[in-house]
Structure formats: C-alpha cells, structure tokens
Amino acid sequence: MADFSTQRRERVLAADRAHVWHPYTQMKTYREGPDPLVIARAEGPYLEDTAGRRYLDGNSSWWVSVLGHGHPTVKRRVVEQMEDLAHCSLAGITHEPAASLATRLVESTPAGLEHVFYSDDGSTAVEVALKMAFQYFQQNGQPKRTRFVSFQGGFHGETIGCVSVGGVSLFHKMYQPLLFDVLFCPSPADGPEALAAFRELMAEHGDSVAGVVIEPLVQGAAGMRMYSEAAFREIAAATKEAGAYLIADEVFVGFGRTGSMWACERAGVEPDFLCTSKGLSAGMLPFAATLTTGKVFDGFLGDAESGRTFYYGHSYCGNPLGCAAALAVLDVFEEEQVLAGVDLRAQRMAEGLEALAKLPAVESVRQTGLIGALDLQERGVGGYLDDAGWQVYYRALELGAYLRPLGNIVYFAPPVNIPLDDLERLLQIAETAIASL
Ligand SMILES: *Cc1c(COP(=O)(O)O)cnc(C)c1O
C-alpha cells in the first residue's frame, strides 16, 4: 500500500479543518486543538494512522466493527456481490441477498419475529418501529394508542422521532420544541424504584401507549448504564400486560455484545419489534433492519385502497451490498464460533476491570458481556463534559489505544472476536493511562 507522505497528511488536515463538520464535536475546540489522528487503514482490532502507528480500537469504531476491521470473509463477500448487483430498489421487486438475509435474521432472532424491514442505520431502524407500531394501532381498532414510553438515559438515534424517545438531555434538549410527546420513566439502571415507576405509569396510561422503546440490558450512550435481565423481563411483561408493543433497540447490544447473539435472547424476552444495525454489517457498509411479528405484519394487509399500506422506505432499503455484508457477518459468527469465545474474553475483561477498580482515580467499574465501563472521579465540570475522560483518552493514544470516553466514563467495547492478548493490552493501556492522572 502506498506510503502516506507528510505532505499528503498535511493536505488532509487542512481540508478537514476547512470543511469537515465532525459529529458530536465542538468545532471551535477541535480546530484549535491538537491534530486529530488521521487514519489511513485498519485491520482486526487496530486502527492505523498515516505514519503506520497502530491503535487498539477500544470501542469498535463507535460500536460498529464487532468483528474487527476488514474481516476477510465479509470483505470478499461484499466485493463478490458488487460484481453482480450493487444496488436496485426493493419496491415491488426483490433479490436473493434481501430474501436470504431476511430468512437468516428471522431464524436468528427471538421467537415470534417473522418479518424484516430494511433501512440504513440505527436511527432509521428505530424510526421504522415507531411508525409501524403507531400505524398498527391506528388501523386496527385502537386509535387511542398514540404515545410512546421510553427511559431516562435511553438513546435511540438522531432523527426527530428517535430524539423524541431519547432520554439523554444533553443531546436532546435543544430540539424539545420539535419533539412529540413521550412518557419518560426513570432509567431501569436506577434500581427497583424505577421499575415500580414504570409499572405505575403503565397502570395509569398503558391504554394510550403504542410502544415502549428500550435498550435491552445496557443504555450505551448514557454512559454504559447497565441493568439486570430480570428487570428487563419485568418491563417486557408489564408492557405486554398493558397491550402495548415492546420495541427492543438492539442496535448496540445485538451481535454478541452481551455474550449472546441478542440481549433479548439472553434475557428470555420476545419483543414485538427488534431493531438492529451497527454489528449487523459490522462496519462494512451502513445497513439496518427492523424485525416484527406476524401479527403486526398482518395488521397492514388490505387492498390498495384500504389505506393500510406502510408508506415508508429509504433509497437504500435492502441494498444488496449491505445484505451481503450482513449475511457474511452471520456466517462468520457461525464458522468462527464467535459467540463461544465471548465468555472467555468477558472473563479477561472482568480481571482487567478488577485491577482498574483499585486505582485511586476510579470510582466504580461495571460490566455486561464484552462491555466494560468505569467512572472516573470528576475533575472538571462533571458529567459528559468532564475532562477526566479526555485526559485518559490522550494518554491512551500515546500508548497505542483509542478510548474515546463518554464524559468521565471510560469504557471498552472492543470487537467481540478481539484476540486475547490484544484485549489484555487494551486493558493494560487503560490502567497505565488512568494511573498517570
Ligand atoms: C447508535 C445507536 C442508534 C443510532 O444508530 P445510528 O446508526 O447512529 O443511526 C440507535 N440506538 C442505539 C441503542 C444506538 O447505540
């Protein structure tokens, strides 16, 4: 591969500072700050910069690259698919990748989910579920079910619909006037009182609720807030009892992250909607799917004039390349028995977290499957804008790991197939970085 000259790197940085608007980034600080990493390539659990320095990708590039970067099987299958068919719409026509993948997803996910609606990313996967749940009740005799329930700390994506059900106020409060009315519950990570509050809310308002939107077991963006399988089962049961639909947002926790393929499966919960993205195409292409039940699907059947059609779809709905990537990801999970290896990695992570917990700068640690997180003692303004996490971030970069924090929370969500010695190195780097605070 061609070497990346210093000049070429400078050109990238100049163009970036002039024109690229980065996500979740204060651009004034960014422009005035140190040069960002310029990534030239990536392989397995490593990102590599233009000088050939390698960094362990501690968060699978925003939770996406669950099989590491550039998995050869996934890459090959996408290229093969590109030779035959890179794109065609899914409007009244079909293709083998879409049909095969739908079958595989239905087989893989919890019982009851039988139909697959494709879209582009995690946000659209959730948006689809919101609209389907709402429309289902409108046209199936329960038009009063118009509202959604979600949880403080929940994160479901960036569209106005997803932001409406989002419970991370730092990200969402600006858009308040644009959002629809949602009933918010305390985070299930807040313990038994939160569950009691949920039951109360459903008892009072349950008959006006279309859907309950939840991140099963771990609220990711809120700072890896974790709760028990039993709590999730309770929420699922109370939702069903109220006659509302359970919308499981597995965009982050799906694809082995918790140790099972699906967090719902781990908890023994059968949701009415399951939203998946990120690990679904594992960083090869933007891609997403929303699964639902035969009951919901049937509620949209009728003749053309019935008005029961789901008038919704994106340009890249069912994109053959995305389907090929997802099919390859599912094959890799089977062929390489990826899930069977997650427990051992989780065990190693637990040992690493135990060592980290002993550092004076660390307040507490927690873990679910291959998600580990720790709270640093606050050093600045506190919360998401605290700078303790950023100090660890810069120190870890020097030591060869990319550990973008969530405020004062440092977390680990490496590829679920990360080699054990790389995982140990990642935890060791975190320990050294935090110890130097
Ligand atoms: C990332 C994420 C989303 C949004 O996905 P995008 O691909 O960024 O649109 C939705 N829900 C959860 C739980 C997520 O982690």
If strands are numbered along the chain, what order do they take across the biggest sheet? 4-12-11-10-7-5-6
Q: Compute the number of strand runs.
A: 16
The residue-averaged pLDDT reads 96
- The residue fraction in helices comes out at 40-55%
Q: By helix and strand content, what is the structural category?
A: alpha/beta
Q: List the uncertain runs.
A: none
Largest sheet: 7 strands, mixed
How much of the sequence is in beta strands?
15-25%
Count of DSSP helices?
16
Q: Are any ligands bound, and if so which?
A: pyridoxal-5'-phosphate
Radius of gyration: 22 Å
Give the termini separation: 38 Å
Instruction: Choose one word for the global shape.
Output: globular
Task: Give the assembly state of these chains.
Answer: single chain
Task: List the keywords.
437 residues; alpha/beta; 7-stranded mixed sheet; 4-stranded mixed sheet; 16 helices; binds pyridoxal-5'-phosphate
Could you describe the 3D structure shown?
The protein has 16 helices and 16 strands. α4 (72-84) packs antiparallel against α13, α5 (96-108) crosses α13 and α15 crosses α16 (420-435). The radius of gyration is 22 Å and the shape is globular. 41% of the residues lie in helices and 17% in strands. It has helices spanning 6-19, 27-32, 60-63, 72-84, 96-108, 122-138, 160-164, 169-172, 192-205, 229-241, 263-267, 294-298, 320-335, 338-357, 388-399, 420-435; strands at residues 39-43, 46-49, 54-57, 113-119, 147-151, 182-185, 209-214, 218-219, 225-226, 245-249, 273-276, 288-293, 362-368, 371-376, 401-402, 409-412. Pyridoxal-5'-phosphate binds next to α6.
